Structures are given as structure tokens and as C-alpha cells.
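Sample 1 of the test manifest.
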Amino acid sequence: MKQIQLPIAVALLLWLGPAVAFTQTTMSVEVRETQLRATPSFLGRVDALLQYGDQVSVLEEAQGWARVTHQSATGWVHGSALTTKRIVMQAGDASAQRGATGSEVALAGRGFNQEVEDRYRAEQGLDFSSVDRMEGYGVDPTRLAAFLAEGELRLPGAAQ
Amino acid sequence: MNRRTSFSRTIRIAFIATLVLAAIGCAGLGSITEIGTGVAVATGRMTDQQAQSLTRTAEAVERSAEDITPEQEYYIGRSVGAVILDQYRSYDNATATEYLNLVGQALALASDRPELFGGYRFMILEADEVNAFATPSGLIFVSRGMLRLTRSEDDLAAVLAHEIGHIQHRHGLKAIRTSRITTALTSAALTGAQFATSAEVAELTAAFEGSITDITSTLINSGYSRGAEREADEAAVEIMKRVGYDPAALIRVLERMGEGWDPAGPGFARTHPAPDTRVSVVRRAIGSYRHQPVGVAARQRRFDRALGSI
């Protein structure tokens, strides 16, 4: 039995090579901006910034984080910033014109966008100045790290 | 023995490799994360728990991508925020607002959905009623009346974590009628032209306006389903555990809320299940978890400083 198993296992291992390579899936950044970090944690050192639509190759995944490469940089990005769809930044892009389906491609800036918001705002006579002000309430990462430490709190993942 | 185990593992890996290859042939990229996760588990690179966590995140990303992209969610959320701020005034106290955003950001980053198109932001509303809202895009509003029910940072964390739970589960987006989403996605997906026609923009704006109304009427008048509230409470407990806040603070806030409960009045009492039914959900979610009370004094000092006179 073992004599048969060994060659089969070797053959299957050879076969597995491309399968493992395939798990290096290409994904796209689906948020406005995110960070490529040295460790899978929001307290991890930021090595590079990724922008909406940037494509990354996924090398491995752990606890909701993906270790990816983008251009010459490698690091960790949280999975909730990534999609398996390709984000098409220009509506005139060839794949959009081919009529690619929604499950493969997302068109940036299409559908509910700034133009629709502007029109809605004018029709409703709504004031967006408080919403704009609220968007400025971002938290400085260094301040947040100190705040967590002072309160003896933590974030999931490896900080170092 | 070891060798035998190694062989059976090889076969198992090969079997999963077959699944991966089959997936390349007949499925979209969407299923790859799940299968890739299976490979990682079989090869021992990932625990089952890690795999479940990853698969959950991947599914969440995929579902939203199929329906509404985070970019579209962002625009929906901004307008929902504008409607809320048309009905409520903001309470502008820089110290209190910064504190709210620090606590909120810590919780959001520990949630299953830390990354949104524009990120999480927190604002205090100038209102005595007990109320809190979350727009799909991550704008979270808490009334002064709600803040007066909180007596510690952990209490505040409980309120904010519940709202983050609604965002994590996309409850706001699920309140939108399917026909409107179809209109938006059809217009978006089928038109490859550089600029939309004015008729298309008009159609989209109508679907957009309807979507905003669906969400704001749910947030302000009808409330989410009991099931959605249970999901938000369960998410809140999990997030608080991860950060190190005492999840039992949610029970304490709910009990205080129950003291003045009037379903005919404005705010949470109109849109949420009675606190006592939520308390039992929260107790179950906490389970046998033992909270380690560290850093309590430092948290109390900064809470009193920022919100003591709210």
C-alpha cells in the first residue's frame, strides 16, 4: 500500500505546486486609502500607503489580515480593505466596455457618486458642512497608541 | 506513525488542491479565499478559528462588493449623515469629541470590519433624548442624553460598539429596497461611457433619494429588526472583549436605559427592543468570559475629564 502511496503523493505534490501559487490571488484595494504594515495589526509599523484601486498579490492570510506585495513592497493589509474584484478607475477602460459582469469588476466613481450627491443635495436643500467637518475627526495613530496604552487596552494582532 | 500521518495529510492537501484547480476552471475568484483558507488549515498554517475569522471577513467583503461597493456606501452614508444633522444639531465640544473619537476608533479597529471607504467618525448630538445612529459609511452619532447614561469609558464603549456592530453587519444598507440597488448597480455596471447621460443621473438620483429615505426612516422611526439588534449587541460584546473593555458595561447601560423606558417617546425606546430582552442576549454573548479589570482608574480619570459634565 505504502509503495503505491509514495509515487502518488510525489505526483500530487508536483501537481500542488501551481495550486499553491494560485493562492497568491490578485486583489484590489476598495477603500480610499489603506496602509501596508510590517505586522498584521493596526499598531504595526506603516511601510507604504495603498490607494483605491491598487492591485496587490496575496501571499498568505492570517486572522483577517493578508500579507501582500504591491510593486516592490511587501506587508500586511486588513482583509476588509480588499476585494477580489478588479477596480476599474476609468469608465472607458477596455474591460468595462466589454461589458464585464459586476462579479468581476467594480467601476470606481460610477453609480452613487459625487455627481449624484451634488444633485440630491441641491434637490433637498441639505447642508453638508457638518458632515464635511465630521470627516475631519480622524485620529492620529500615535495619539491612539498612547491612548490605548494609558487605558491598558489593546488591539487584536501582533503589535511588534 | 508520523509517516503515515504525513501521507494522509499529503492526500488531503492534494484533494484540496483538486478543489482549487476545479475552482479555477468553473468558479469566479470569489470562492478562492475560502478554498485557500482550506489549504492553509490542511497544511497547518492556520487554525480553524483563524480560518473562520478570515472566511467571515472575505464573505463580508464579497457580499458588499456584489451589492454596493464601499465607495457607493460612502456616498449613501454621507447623505444619511446630512439628513440626521438636518434634524439634530451637533454638540461642539472639542475635548468631548476627541475623546469620543479615540474610544470609537479603538473599537472600530478591533471589529470585523475595520476598513471602510472613508473610515469611522463620531459626533455628539445636542439632544436630551436617549439616542444613537450609525450611517452605513461609518458616521456614528450619539446624543447627549445617551451619554448621560454612561458613567465610565467602558459604558461609553458599549454604546459605540453596538453602533459599530450595525455597520459591521451592514444593517443600514440592508434597509434599502432591492429595486433601488438594482437601479444603481445596473446603471453603474452597464454603462462604459465616460460620462453618464442626464437621464441616467436623474434615475440614479431618484434611486439614491429613495435609499436615503429607506435608511433614515429605519434609523429614526421604525428601527431595525430584533435579529439585527441582537447581532449588533453580540458584535459589541465581541469587540469589547478584544479591546479589553468590560462587556458587562453594556448590561449596566441597558439597565439604566430601562429605568426611563417609554416606547411612545422619541429615540431608542421607539426604535429598539426593550432593554430587558437585550440584557439576556448580552449575558449569553458574554458567556463564561472573565473580564480582567486593569487600567480602570486611568480610564475613569479621562472619562470624567472629557464627559463628566455632559
